[in-house]
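Structural prep section.
Before we set up the soaks we want a predicted structure of the protein with NAP in place, mainly to decide which crystallisation condition to try first. Input record follows.
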Amino acid sequence: MQVGIVGTGVMGSALARRLSYLGFDVYVWNRTLSKAKMLEKYKVSVALSIKELVEKVEIIHIFVSDNEAVKSVFFSKDTIYDNINRKIKLVLNHSTVTPQVNIELYEALREKNIDFLEAPVMGSWPEAEKGKLHIFIGGDKELFEKYQDYLSKIGEVLFYTGKVGTASIMKLASNMMLFNIALSLSEAIKLVEEYGVEPENLLEYFKKTWLKTVSERYGRRILDENYPTRFKLSLAAKDLTYAVQAATAKRKALPLTTASMNTYLLASEHGLGERDYAKVYLLL
Ligand SMILES: NC(=O)c1ccc[n+]([C@@H]2O[C@H](COP(=O)([O-])OP(=O)(O)OC[C@H]3O[C@@H](n4cnc5c(N)ncnc54)[C@H](OP(=O)(O)O)[C@@H]3O)[C@@H](O)[C@H]2O)c1
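Run finished without errors. Recording the tokens verbatim:
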């Protein structure tokens, strides 16, 4: 089967390697061609335009950074929507975006009788490469059931959330927990350091309590200068912004997450955007 991936950043590239490994004919398109070309050694074909990709495949995965990027690859002239054809069975959007954007994609595709599922993921590139992602699925239940076998090739946990929009909100709520926890531990570490206590002592103590998981998950990620980037801080700032926007749309305040959003935005402005999000610590 021919499948296409629009966006070969960290996650889209890992998904391409996974699908190619499983024996699918994988086509990719990326705004920056050189990043897509790096996948050729994994028997992945590079399309020079989105039009070319759409004409070749039956399933399209969208894996780009944010609301604007999704709208650009989907609705701009001569991109996905303009070129959609009867050969296309399914469009999946894995990008973390606000619910409204996925609703717009769903409604546009429904007019053309093309199946759509929103499918934001938990886990990073190692999980994507091994088919171990957790995938929130929003959309018609029958469609979830229809494509469950295919989705289980890329996701270890498929979590059906309800109609389109609900998967995005589950993803934003889950991510805001992670980013708020990483910031909270960063502040705790900074506080003890100011009083001459080794951060390792704090982490060791936490390991004797229910904060063990937090200490083990984020301790090294915060403190080790060379800890590799698993998830860019700029994307965390974006997700927190979307969570706050989604709450505002319902006239709900998220006081803690708003403060956290501003901290991550500031860290991004201070040149930490490409670092792992746990490096928000360096702003403090
Ligand atoms: N990394 C993770 O661990 C992780 C985990 C779960 C979910 N996510 C979500 O998955 C999505 C992708 O993340 P990532 O880590 O792969 O990000 P990334 O490495 O920064 O890649 C972003 C991708 O989006 C493309 N893009 C950005 N703006 C665009 C535009 N206006 N038009 C067309 N393409 C555009 C980029 O193209 P260029 O190469 O040309 O810049 C690139 O392919 C994000 O929504 C992120 O929040 C990431």
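Observations: Residues 131 and 154 are 4 Å apart (CA to CA).
Flagged for discussion at group meeting.
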